[in-house]
Design a protein that fits this description.
- The complex is a heterodimer.
- Chain A is mainly α.
- Chain A has 10 helices and no strands.
- The C terminus of chain A is likely disordered.
- Chain B is mainly α.
- Chain B is built from 12 helices and 2 strands.
- Chain B has a two-stranded antiparallel sheet with strand order 1-2.
- In chain B, α6 packs across α7 and α8 packs antiparallel against α9.
- The longest helix of chain B has 33 residues.
- Classes of the chains: A mainly alpha, B mainly alpha.
- Chains A and B meet through α1, α2, α3, α7 and α8 of A and α1, α2, α3, α4 and α9 of B.
């Protein structure tokens, strides 16, 4: 397994060399190999198909433009992944500002509590039948994820879905490791508050480290 | 110990080592804390099943089609390529050749006062290329010959160390790119084409692991053989030697000869 990962990196490095030597079509090898992973990350970070496609395109375009700065011995997959995460954060930050402006214009609530998706999740109290439906649970998850700040969402997605290390997350968030760790914690805490009421408390999951 | 905080439980679930033993011992004794950890786990497990939509079978192709339109050709001007920091060493070596060629040109000019300034300039450029590339091809040939003849010491040897050849190929790769660009600028398409093929082989070798299995070594040797690159490098090397000799006797004819070679 390790050998196949190593050989993948080697062939990535060869493709990078060819692009740098002027062979533009060699970049397709890198797109073929990594676009699916970047798509998954982008979707989890942005939560919608339109932004996802934009992030994928922009990540590969920026990686191509900066290919001369890429260290040949590092991993292209991790590099383009990081570019995608950075761009997704910028895009979500921009969208967040736009949405906030639009919401304020359209629904100027007295204290803003109605606009908080977490509060909406809690207030809705759906029936048990609906809760059993995975589509409903998925919707609740989307709401809970959308209620996170962009940094919290990025930290959570990278840590718990993509298995990234804290140092890597800190790099993307442009913070130190202890701040990144704290952001991951805040994200899990908020998700827990938002989703716990919708999970069946009668069949708790077997938690790691409680086996014996 | 006192009950761990929610943050400590989440960090514990995340595999963090701080106070791990202490928290594990506490969890064995404390039902409410165990229950809290199980609820955290349930939320994370449910989120773990949150699907990312499948983008479809031809996704990679669609991404490429949209992207390819936006990608500029990476055609750097030849003089900009020489000024990149990592290529300055090679540029320095070639500059030394320029000076040497200039001196040679001065001497030649004294011997043949009828040679025009323009013709001399052209010849100087060509001489640089011929001398430098001839040397480069000689070094490349040595690396390829060593690799083509490398064998495991005995049948039981599991790894063959090719790190020396690999590093030399890496160094030659940088030079090779510059010579190929320069050959193209000079309109010497025949030479540029062989250098292009050589570049692909050098890239393969430079990015091989330091130590390869006998099977991997055989695969590298097959790739070298399949390109017929060693043969081409020898032919072009001899050709350049001939051009160098020709220039000493009849500089004006050499460009005509290069044109003839490109045609063939």
């Amino acid at each position: 397994m390790k050998e196949s990962v190593e050989s993948l990196r080697e062939t990535d490095a060869i493709a990078v060399e060819r692009v740098l030597a002027g062979d533009r079509d060699a970049y397709r090898t890198l797109v073929d190999r990594h676009s699916r992973n970047v798509h998954r990350l982008a979707y989890r970070l942005t939560g919608n198909a339109h932004d996802t496609e934009d992030v994928v395109q922009e990540a590969f375009l920026r990686a191509y433009q900066k290919l001369g700065q890429f260290e040949a011995r590092s991993n292209f997959g991790t590099w383009v992944y990081r570019i995608a995460a950075n761009y997704a954060i910028d895009r979500m930050r921009q969208r967040h500002k736009e949405d906030a402006r639009r919401e304020f214009r359209e629904t100027p609530g007295p204290d803003g509590a109605e606009r908080n998706p977490v509060a909406l999740v809690r207030d809705e109290s759906p029936s048990p039948e609906r809760l059993m439906q995975s589509t409903q649970l998925r919707r609740e998850m989307e709401r809970a994820l959308n209620a996170l700040s962009y940094a919290e969402r990025t930290a959570f997605v990278m840590r718990h879905w993509e298995g990234c290390g804290i140092e890597e997350i800190a790099g993307v968030l442009k913070s130190n490791t202890s701040a990144a760790k704290n952001t991951v914690f805040r994200a899990v805490q908020k998700l827990r508050r938002a989703l716990e009421p919708f999970l069946d408390a009668r069949t708790p999951a077997k938690a790691m480290g409680t086996e014996g | 110990m006192t009950h761990p905080t929610e943050e400590q439980l989440i960090a514990y679930r995340d595999g963090e080592n701080a106070r791990r033993e202490e928290i594990a011992a506490h969890l064995r004794e404390c039902g409410p804390c165990r229950n809290q950890l199980e609820r955290i786990e349930a939320v994370l497990q449910a989120l773990g099943e949150f699907p990312a939509p499948d983008p479809g079978e031809d996704y990679e192709q669609r991404v490429w089609q949209r992207l390819a339109r936006k990608l500029p050709e990476k055609q750097t001007r030849w003089w900009q390529m020489w000024l990149e920091p990592r290529r300055l060493a090679t540029a320095g070596a070639v500059l030394a050749l320029v000076v040497a060629a200039f001196v040679m040109g001065r001497i030649t000019k004294q011997v043949r006062p009828d040679t025009t300034a323009a013709a001399t300039e052209e010849q100087v450029r060509e001489r640089i290329l011929v001398v430098a590339v001839g040397e480069h091809l000689g070094k490349s040939e040595m690396v390829l010959v060593e690799l083509a003849n490398a064998l495991p010491r005995d049948a039981n040897q599991k790894r063959v160390n090719i790190s020396a050849e690999q590093h030399r190929a890496g160094d030659l790769l940088e030079e090779n790119r510059l010579y190929r660009q320069t050959a193209l600028q000079q309109g010497d398409t025949g030479l540029a084409s062989v250098l292009d093929e050589l570049e692909r082989v050098l890239v393969d070798v430079a990015h091989s692991p330091d130590e390869v299995t006998p099977a991997q070594l055989e695969s590298i040797q097959k790739r070298i053989a399949a390109h017929g690159i060693l043969f081409k490098v020898r032919v072009v090397g001899k050709d350049l030697q001939q051009r160098q000799d020709d220039m000493k006797t009849a500089p004006a004819q050499s460009r005509e000869q290069a044109r003839e070679r490109n045609k063939t």
